[in-house]
Write a structure and sequence with these properties.
The complex is a heterotrimer of chains A (about 350), B (about 80) and C (about 190).
Chain A (H helix, E strand, L loop, with lengths): L3 E9 L6 H9 L6 E3 L9 E4 L8 H17 L8 E6 L9 H12 L6 E3 L5 H14 L5 E8 L3 H9 L20 E2 L1 E8 L5 E11 L12 H11 L8 E3 L6 H13 L6 E3 L2 H4 L6 H15 L1 E2 L15 E2 L4 E2 L4 E8 L3 E10 L1
Parallel strand pairs in A: 3-7, 4-5, 4-6, 10-11, 10-15, 11-13
Antiparallel strand pairs in A: 1-8, 1-9, 2-3, 6-8, 9-16, 12-14, 15-16
Helix pairs in contact in A: 1-9, 2-3, 4-9, 6-7
Chain B lengths: L1 H14 L25 H15 L6 H7 L3 H9 L1
Chain C lengths: L2 E10 L2 E4 L2 E5 L7 H10 L12 H13 L9 E7 L4 H10 E2 L2 E2 L3 H4 L6 H10 L5 E5 L5 H10 L4 E11 L2 E11 L12
Parallel strand pairs in C: 4-7, 4-8
Antiparallel strand pairs in C: 1-2, 1-9, 2-3, 5-6, 8-9
The chains are: A alpha/beta (about 350), B mainly alpha (about 80), C alpha+beta (about 190).
Chain lengths: ~350, ~80, ~190
């Protein structure tokens, strides 16, 4: 059976233009989230992470930058017939069909196969990686370039403001004083390959629905618990750490704590990366998987900035400080509108 | 007040897509949330937008929101205040 | 044929077809709220939440309602939905609510501006917690559905193309199927 290893990655974000740069900034506690008042991105000021520079065709540009960063590191040939490009995004370029945008991007690299375009709210990235892993396992493709991206416009920002979901500070996941999310722009790319024999492997994942409400999570974390159970099925022991969704809304973080509690993951150190670069929507799953993979390689699980006083009903172990340890695996989780939930397992394999 | 309540009822039916409901069927004193109309969190947010858009009245915190949105009567009283 | 199709539904223009047979011809203008209400009423169900949905979710809801059956399983029914224009219709409606001169962002529209939310509505209605995904595609593509289906875990699956761009461009075309193991549904080139 083929295995899917991460052979290259890139995060192109206001917090850095390479994965290493972003990781270093995070390890030093830096954040690109700030109060944005310039009116171009949002009419009502909000705590966001946005690019300072201007881009021509912003969405395509950040994707192309990110893919270029990963592909050049990987040495793969995008034009190979056994290479697939997957795009994960919630809104892409609003007004342009997502499949069209994906084709424009794909053309720049000469990807031969039709891009697969997944748009599944905030779990798009984790779903994309899970599907990529399954495709590699089944032997259909040798290399899969998975890119997640979203840009911010008043459409998106005002929408979350209308739901009263945006926090009044840099967000504070799992903290008692948390009051909402930060949004962030980002493009992130991971290349999975069946050619590699060692490194960080994506061993499997699963996604499930709450069947409860389209914008509020299940009070019993139904879908998340199902997803985690299925992902962890067959795994010996516990993951070294968890990279949670941790958006810092009252409801999401509480729901996640219930999900982790039901899955007996109370003692597993966990973090949320959202305070560092915001909730990057379609890019979130990919970027956070990349940081988690780097954490495994470097032996540093990052803390959750802003978490000071435990603010969820279940006992879970939220990291207050960076943790240096031998990390061999990570469980990444995500939840989104529509009541969807996803999780995926990363394992260090020699 | 009577006229305002009647108008509010029609606006709420329209805003929340309460199809096939008429103003007469809605009790202005009855709680909007919980039983009765079966409204949810998105409906609450829609009502907040309605108050601002049609009447220029802003609700800035959850506590005020809960009190104002208790019933159509409390909404009307808030508008008049 | 790798998929064993059990049910199918197509809603297009003034016609609802179930399992290849016309079951309803509507009288209201196609693609309007009134027409969708007419179709809803023909089903004789009581689901007031239908009226809160955007047009895309209403269309998806209706199509699935015509094929619902005892095979729907809480944990083992997957859902794959596709279209070309995502949530363009409600995107435009939401955009009007953030007009600079009349700026009142509407949360009831915004929650529908993600294409997987129609899957959420179906899940809630039929209590389906299995795997689901929305994929953007230029055209109806059965091969794409088959290929995605190969990557999901399920006993049976609701899949199809649900498009609502506007009154003049809308269509629902869905199937409910099981894997057909006899034809090697597990093997062969994935995707």
């Amino acid at each position: 059976m083929k295995k899917a290893f991460i052979i290259a990655d890139n995060i192109f974000s206001p917090l850095g233009k390479t994965s290493c740069e972003v990781f270093e900034n995070m390890a030093h506690g830096k954040s690109s989230v700030k109060l944005v008042e310039n009116g171009e991105i949002c009419r009502v000021p909000a705590y966001l992470s946005v690019f300072d520079e201007k881009f021509e065709n912003k969405f395509e540009s950040i994707c192309i930058n990110s893919i270029h960063g990963a592909v050049s590191e990987s040495g793969i040939d995008p034009k190979d017939s056994q290479t697939l490009f997957i795009l994960s995004t919630t809104k892409g370029n609003i007004g342009v069909p997502l499949n069209k945008t994906a084709e424009i991007i794909a053309e720049k690299f000469g990807f031969i196969n039709n891009p697969l375009v997944i748009s599944n709210a905030c779990i798009s990235g984790v779903v994309a990686i899970t599907i990529a892993e399954r495709l590699i396992k089944k032997g259909g493709y040798r290399n899969i370039v998975v890119t997640g991206a979203d840009i911010l416009t008043d459409f998106i920002v005002s929408g979350f403001q209308s739901l009263k979901a945006i926090g009044s500070t840099v967000c504070r996941p799992f903290d008692v004083a948390r009051n909402g999310i930060n949004l962030g722009e980002c493009a992130a790319t991971v290349i999975l390959s069946s050619d590699a024999k060692s490194g960080v492997e994506v061993t499997g994942g699963a996604f499930n629905g709450d069947a409860n409400h389209i914008s509020g999570p299940s009070r019993t974390a139904e879908g998340l618990y199902l997803s985690i159970s299925r992902t962890m099925n067959g795994f010996n022991g516990l993951p070294s750490f968890i990279s949670a969704h941790g958006t810092a809304t009252s409801f999401n973080d509480e729901m996640e704590s219930i999900g982790f509690d039901r899955a007996d993951l109370n003692d597993v150190p966990l973090n949320s990366l959202k305070p560092y670069f915001g909730h990057t929507l379609g890019a979130a799953g990919i970027a956070e998987i990349i940081i988690s993979a780097h954490s495994i390689q470097k032996g540093i699980a990052l803390k959750t900035p802003g978490y000071e006083n435990h603010g969820v009903t279940r006992n879970i172990t939220v990291l207050k400080e960076n943790m240096r340890a031998e990390l061999t695996s990570c469980l990444k989780t995500a939840s989104g509108f529509g009541g969807c939930n996803a999780s995926v397992l990363l394992v260090k394999n020699k | 007040m009577e006229q305002l309540i009647k108008t509010l009822k029609d606006q709420i039916i329209n805003e929340l897509n309460l199809e096939d409901m008429t103003a007469d069927e809605i009790d202005a004193q009855a709680p909007l949330f919980g039983e009765g109309l079966g409204l949810d969190s998105i409906d609450a947010l829609s009502l907040i937008v309605l108050l601002e858009r049609e009447y220029g009245k802003k609700i800035n915190d959850t506590e005020t929101g809960k009190k104002v949105l208790y019933s159509i009567k409390t909404m009307a009283e808030f508008i008049k205040s | 044929m790798r998929l064993k199709t059990i049910r199918s539904c197509r809603i297009s223009n003034d016609t609802v077809e179930v399992d290849g047979k016309t079951v309803l011809k509507t009288t209201e203008t196609p693609g309007t709220s009134k027409q969708f209400k007419e179709i809803y009423l023909s089903l004789n169900i009581d689901y007031p939440k239908f009226y809160k949905m955007d047009m895309l979710s209403k269309l998806a809801f209706l199509a699935v309602e015509f094929i619902k059956n005892e095979g729907f399983s809480e944990k083992d029914t997957a859902i794959i939905m596709t279209n070309a224009n995502s949530t363009l219709d409600v995107d435009l409606k939401y955009t009007k609510s953030i007009d600079p001169d009349n700026y009142f962002p509407n949360p009831a529209f915004f929650v529908y501006t993600l294409p997987n939310v129609m899957i959420g509505e179906i899940s809630i209605r039929h209590n389906l917690k299995g795997e689901s995904v929305f994929v953007s595609t230029e055209n109806k593509d059965l091969e794409l559905l088959e290929n995605i289906a190969k990557t999901l875990e399920f006993k049976n699956c609701i899949a199809g193309f649900i498009e609502y761009e506007n009154e003049n461009n809308f269509e629902a075309d869905i199937i409910f199927f099981e894997r057909n193991y006899l034809n090697g549904g597990e093997n062969g080139t994935a995707y």
